[in-house]
C-alpha cells in the first residue's frame, strides 16, 4: 500500500485549508509521523492484517518516534500538546487502527494511569522504559460481565497481611499477552482501586482472543488473576473509585476523536485515487455524477470531523475540556468514519473486498473502535444527560 495523497489535488486533501490553523511545530510533528506510517506501516499492513500479527518490532521504533505517552511530561515522555498527540493519532490510524490502538493503550491508558495516580517509585520504575518502547503496558478494566457497566466488576483485591491478593478475570484487554506490566482495577473494601501488576507475577495469565474479523493487526486478550499476590506498594496511591479509570478512558477517547479521521481520510484518498485511474465506458469513474457525489460527501464529513477534533484539542490544551464534550467527538467522528470507509469501498466495486485496498479493512476495524472506550450508545447517553440533565443509564 503506497501513499496516494501526494498525487492528488491539494483541494481534495485539505478543502478548507485547515492546515493554516496549525502551527509550524504541529505540522512538523504530523509530517514526521505521516512519513513513518508511509514507510513502515502502509507497505506491511496487508500482510500483518491477513496473518493477524501485531508487529512487535515497531514498538521501539514508536518509542524513538516519540509517540508513546507523548502527551505526558517528565519521566522520558515528550510533553507534547493535546493537538500534537491528536495529529499523531490521526496519522497512525491512517495506517491502521491497530497501530493507533497500541499507542493509545500504552500511552493514554497504562502510562496515563501511572502518571496521574502512581507513586514516585512506580513512575520512575515504569514510565521511562515505556516511553522508549522497552516495556509494554496494558490496562485491565473491562470484564466478561462488566463492559459498559464497570461498576459491576467482580475482580476483587483483598488485604493479606501488609500486601494484597487479587482474584478475577478481565476481557478485551489490549496488549496483555505481550505486556510487561498491567494496570488492574479491582474492587476492595474501600471501593475500586488500581494496582500495578508485573505480568510475570504468579497467577497472572493472558490469552489472545483469536479468530477476530476486526483489529486483526492488534492484540486483545482474556486475562485471569488467580491468587495474585502483591506488596502493599503495588496499589496506585492517588486513584480511588471509578473516577480513576474513567479519567484514563477519557484520554483514550480523546485520541480516538482524531484517530478515526485517519481511517476515514485514508479510505477517501484511496477511493479518489482509484476513481481517477479506473476507466469504465471510456472515461475515469471519477467523472460520473454518482461517484463525485460520494467523494464530496466524504470530503465534507472528513473536514467537519477535523474541525471537531481540532476545536476539542484546543479546549483540552486550554484546560477547559469536559468529558461530555469528548463524547461528542468520539461519537460523531467514529460514526462518520465508518460511513466513509463503507462508502469508499463501494467505489472499488468487487476489488474493494480484497486487502489490496484499505477501505474495507478500515471499516472492519472501526466496528471495534465504535465499540471500545464506550460504545456509541454509551456516548449518546452521556450526551443525553448533558443536554437534559437526566441520567438514563439505569
Short note summarizing the structure:
This protein is α+β, with helices and mostly antiparallel strands. The protein has helices at 10-13, 24-41, 45-51, 59-65, 82-95, 97-117, 120-132, 243-277, 289-318, 323-347, 359-369, 376-388; strands at 73-74, 77-78, 137-140, 156-160, 163-174, 181-188, 191-198, 204-208, 220-230, 279-280, 283-284.
Structural description of this entry:
The chain is α+β, with helices and mostly antiparallel strands and 394 residues long. The chain folds into three domains: 128 residues, Acyl-CoA dehydrogenase/oxidase, N-terminal domain (Butyryl-Coa Dehydrogenase, subunit A, domain 1, Orthogonal Bundle), CATH 1.10.540.10; 98 residues, Beta Barrel (Butyryl-CoA Dehydrogenase, subunit A, domain 2); 146 residues, Butyryl-CoA Dehydrogenase, subunit A, domain 3 (Up-down Bundle). It is 50% helix and 15% strand. It has twelve helices and eleven strands. The protein has a four-stranded antiparallel beta sheet, covered by helices on one side. Strands 3-6-7 form a three-stranded mixed beta sheet. A two-stranded antiparallel ribbon has the order 1-2. Helix 6 packs antiparallel against helix 8. The termini are far apart. The mean pLDDT is 96. Belongs to the acyl-CoA dehydrogenase family.
Amino acid at each position: 500500500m503506497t501513499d496516494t495523497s501526494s498525487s492528488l489535488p491539494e483541494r481534495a486533501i485539505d478543502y478548507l485549508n485547515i492546515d493554516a490553523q496549525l502551527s509550524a511545530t504541529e505540522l512538523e510533528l504530523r509530517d514526521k509521523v505521516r512519513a513513518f506510517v508511509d514507510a513502515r506501516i502502509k507497505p506491511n499492513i496487508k500482510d500483518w492484517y491477513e496473518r493477524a500479527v501485531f508487529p512487535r518490532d515497531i514498538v521501539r521504533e514508536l518509542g524513538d518516534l516519540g509517540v508513546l505517552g507523548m502527551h505526558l511530561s517528565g519521566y522520558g515522555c515528550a510533553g507534547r500538546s493535546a493537538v500534537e498527540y491528536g495529529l499523531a493519532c490521526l496519522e497512525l490510524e491512517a495506517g491502521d487502527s491497530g497501530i493507533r490502538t497500541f499507542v493509545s493503550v500504552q500511552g493514554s491508558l497504562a502510562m496515563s494511569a501511572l502518571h496521574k495516580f502512581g507513586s514516585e517509585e512506580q513512575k520512575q520504575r515504569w514510565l521511562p522504559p515505556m516511553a522508549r518502547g522497552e516495556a509494554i503496558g496494558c490496562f485491565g478494566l473491562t470484564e466478561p460481565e462488566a463492559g459498559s457497566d464497570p461498576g459491576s466488576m467482580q475482580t476483587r483485591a483483598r488485604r493479606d497481611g501488609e500486601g494484597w491478593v487479587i482474584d478475577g478475570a478481565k476481557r478485551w484487554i489490549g496488549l496483555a499477552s505481550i505486556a510487561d506490566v498491567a494496570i488492574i482495577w479491582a474492587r476492595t473494601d474501600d471501593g475500586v482501586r488500581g494496582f500495578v501488576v508485573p505480568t510475570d507475577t504468579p497467577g497472572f495469565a493472558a490469552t489472545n482472543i483469536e479468530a477476530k474479523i476486526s483489529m486483526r493487526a492488534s492484540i486483545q486478550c482474556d486475562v485471569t488473576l488467580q491468587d495474585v499476590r502483591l506488596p502493599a506498594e503495588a496499589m496506585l496511591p492517588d486513584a480511588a473509585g471509578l473516577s480513576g479509570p474513567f479519567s484514563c478512558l477519557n484520554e483514550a477517547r480523546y485520541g480516538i476523536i482524531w484517530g478515526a479521521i485517519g481511517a476515514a481520510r485514508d479510505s477517501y484518498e484511496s477511493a479518489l485515487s482509484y476513481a481517477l485511474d479506473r476507466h469504465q465506458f471510456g472515461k475515469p469513474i471519477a467523472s460520473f455524477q454518482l461517484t463525485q457525489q460520494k467523494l464530496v460527501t466524504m470530503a465534507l464529513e472528513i473536514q467537519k470531523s477535523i474541525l471537531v477534533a481540532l476545536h476539542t484539542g484546543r479546549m483540552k490544551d486550554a484546560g477547559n475540556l469536559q468529558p461530555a464534550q469528548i463524547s461528542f467527538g468520539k461519537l460523531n467522528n467514529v460514526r462518520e468514519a465508518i460511513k466513509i470507509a463503507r462508502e469508499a469501498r463501494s467505489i472499488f466495486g468487487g476489488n474493494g473486498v480484497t486487502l489490496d485496498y484499505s477501505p474495507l479493512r478500515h471499516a472492519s476495524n472501526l466496528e471495534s473502535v465504535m465499540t471500545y472506550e464506550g460504545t456509541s450508545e454509551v456516548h449518546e447517553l452521556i450526551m443525553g444527560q448533558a443536554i437534559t440533565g437526566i441520567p438514563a443509564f439505569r
